[in-house]
Amino acid sequence: MSRKSKVLLFVVLAMFFLVSLVGAKMTITWWINPWRIAPPGFPADQAAGSEDFPKWISEEFMKLHPDVEVKYVVVGNTEYSQKMAAAIATRTQPDLFKGPIWDSRWVEAGLLEPIDDYLTEEDWEDFYEIALDDFEVNGKHYVFPWSFGTNGMGTSMLLYTPDFEKAGVDWRKIVEEGWTMEEFLEICKKLTWDSDGDGKTDHYALSFGAKDIHNIMNFIYAYGAKLSNEDETQVHMNSPQAVEGLQFLIDLVDKYGVVPNGVEGMGVYDVIGNFHAHRTSMGFGGPYEIGRITRYYLSQKWEFSELFEPVIAPFPHVEGKDPVAYAATGGFIVFKQADKEKRDMVMEFARFLTNKENMALLESLSYLTSRKSVNAMLYEGDEYMKAQVDVFGDIMGDYGMEFFGSQSFPWSEMEKYFTASLEAAFSGTKTPQQALDYFNVEANKILEKRK
Amino acid sequence: MNLLKSIWKNKAAYLFIMPHFALFLTFFLIPVGWGMYLSLFDYSVFSQEFIGFDNYKEIFSDNLFWKALGNTFLYTFGVVPLWLGKALLVTVLIYPFRKGIRTFFKAMFYLPHVSSTVIIAMIWLWVFNPNFGLLNFFMESVGLDPVVWLGNKATALPSLIMMQVIMGGGSTIVLLSAAMSSIPEYLFEAAEIEGASSWQIFRKITVPLLKPTILYSLVMGTIANFQTFSNIYIMTEGGPEFSTLTVAYLVYETAFKNYYLGLASAMSMIMFVILVALALIQFKWLSSNVEY
């Protein structure tokens, strides 16, 4: 190759390099667990998939910011924590994420960006306080609030009204005024029957699963139990109130026969399946679970003979006490950014994801949003859903509480012991007192280890 | 120096080995070494502090680990003999058939091996469902009380063992069939002429000559079942009351639910040592030079 050719080649390569540098786009990577939100224009007679929303919103943001490339990854709920742990350990975490996991220790390890400076006055006013406070550590906030409430497990119950009418029970009174444990028990008895006349009960009032702890926890809390003392240094889940609550649930199975046997072997999807198949008259959950019925029906996941519309009602309460409801929120969390320009753009994307217009898309999934202004406009054209969302919002607002301690409370480590104690209590290998004593001992060991 | 000379002399052979060795090094030896290293640290996404053998001390004082280890042994020694026995029985039973029929049965038994373990576990969850499952339907149809198969700590682990025995063994049947085909026919003929019974032929000829394949299957089966995870993860999550908790599931939970990666690495190392010991015992016990 001649000297002239070499120089020419060098100039071409250098220009190519410079052009590629100038044209290089800023890349934002984000993770989201499966949220089957229908983007605008999605066919109404189809169920949206988990990729539809992240794909659409990434493209919309790129249209507004042509110099940015947004890459999304849909991560399944069950493998989310292991993938995130591996990503953090290898320093390959996404720029922002929405997932079923969050650990306040990430803040202590300096992994997350506080978002306070990126919220406007209007945002502070518009977001529910609980949605912001849920992710507050040392006075700073770490999440752009998005969804308000979970799927409603532990928050509210679902009533299949035709069964209530068949049993002569006024379900409207329950929705409007609530019900005591005694009233609940009597209604359960009326909702339990033998459908095929073979002398055996084959239809029950409701079902539980020992691995479905949110709903069981609700009853235990309703009796006045507390997970721990005020400063979370001691677990107190074996109090007389906790034992009484657990005993009531066991009695529903063993003494009254209004809940099918096998609680110790079942999980939340067994409970949901029983309700969907009308093997039980009551299920658990909020608007999201109503949406699940529609989605399953549209995707023919379950062999529904009909698309039914249950109503939302509060959990029963002990006479003289308020009912309780599990309240939790979710949103987008930003990982630490070394580059300020990139940080601003990631925050801009998080703001885009949680602006009023895009947040309102949660309606397609029957979720409430973390913005008061958006919730006021949801389900305007749908009288049935509007009524359910109003009831759900009231339950959350009036009785909402955290079930599993503060963000720094190591519930995730304790959970398996709680499940084991429920399995023992429902299978009869331990009395409720013995089962909860066992949980208390193990949970306090974990607290001791954390000190 | 001699070593280098020897390598240079056999450079072509080493070049052929190199790609596999590079992959083996990258995806096995280095991770194992890294796991050993991590096991000496309080290693999580939040901290990386050297703590010596503290993780091992913590594991050996943890009742849950001993419970998981006991369950893992029960599961492995419950599954492997039954599953190997089943494979041996099926192999012997299909051996007399002509090739096409043998291939059909081998393919049938091999099918679960190429099916998704998740799908199989989901199907078995329905089989074991306490209220509406197939197994309880049969129990009730013969007048027996329904059983909460996966919810009762007395039946959960045996249920998983039964499921694994029914679904497993396909690859072993293929291996044993291949090994059996290579046994010279005249050995069986001679035994028959001498008046040996079918049981004597099986015990004195078939089994001894299949010993190397049985050993291989035993070692591989023990290793695979000792690390069982997916069935536990999908079907029981270690419950009820930790009666199906295995070491592999505990490692997963410790590492990816609670983020104690150092502690989980130490558990993995203990499992690794146990498996090596088991393999050595099996080799010592069963290995023999077979010539025919």
Cα radius of gyration of chain A in angstroms = 25 Å
The name of the CATH topology of the largest domain in chain A is D-Maltodextrin-Binding Protein, domain 2
Give the largest chain-chain interface (CB within 8 Å).
A-B, 34 and 30 residues
**In what order do the strands lie side by side in the largest sheet of chain A?**
2-1-3-11-6-12
Helix and strand composition category of chain A: alpha/beta
Helices and strands of chain B: which structural class? mainly alpha
Largest sheet of chain A: 6 strands, mixed
Strand order of the largest sheet of chain B: 1-2
* Number of separate helices of chain A: 19
Overall tally of domains of chain A: 2
Q: Please write the CATH class name of chain B.
A: Mainly Alpha
Number of strands of chain A: 13
pLDDT < 50 stretches of chain B:
none
Low-confidence parts of chain A, pLDDT < 50 over ≥5 residues?
none
What is the overall silhouette of chain A?
Answer: globular
> What share of residues are in beta strands of chain B?
under 5%
Model description:
The complex is a heterodimer of chains A (451) and B (292). By secondary structure, chain A is α/β, with parallel strands linked by helices. Chain A has 2 domains: 22-151 and 328-397, 3-Layer(aba) Sandwich (D-Maltodextrin-Binding Protein, domain 2), CATH 3.40.190; 157-326 and 405-450, D-Maltodextrin-Binding Protein, domain 2. Helices cover 46% and strands 10% of the residues of chain A. In chain A, the strands form 4 sheets. In chain A, strands 2-1-3-11-6-12 form a 6-stranded mixed sheet. A 3-stranded antiparallel sheet of chain A has the order 8-7-9, with helices on both faces. A two-stranded antiparallel ribbon of chain A has the order 4-5. In chain A, a hairpin with a 2-residue loop joins strand 4 (136-137) and strand 5 (140-141). The N and C termini of chain A lie far apart (71 Å). The model of chain A has no long low-confidence stretch (mean pLDDT 90). With 292 residues, chain B is mainly alpha-helical. Chain B has one domain: MetI-like (MetI-like fold). Chain B is 73% helix and 2% strand. In chain B, strands 1-2 form a two-stranded antiparallel ribbon. In chain B, a hairpin with a 4-residue loop joins strand 1 (41-43) and strand 2. Chain B is flat and about 70 Å long. Classes of the chains: A alpha/beta (451), B mainly alpha (292). Chains A and B meet through helix 3, helix 4 and helix 18 of A and helix 13 of B.
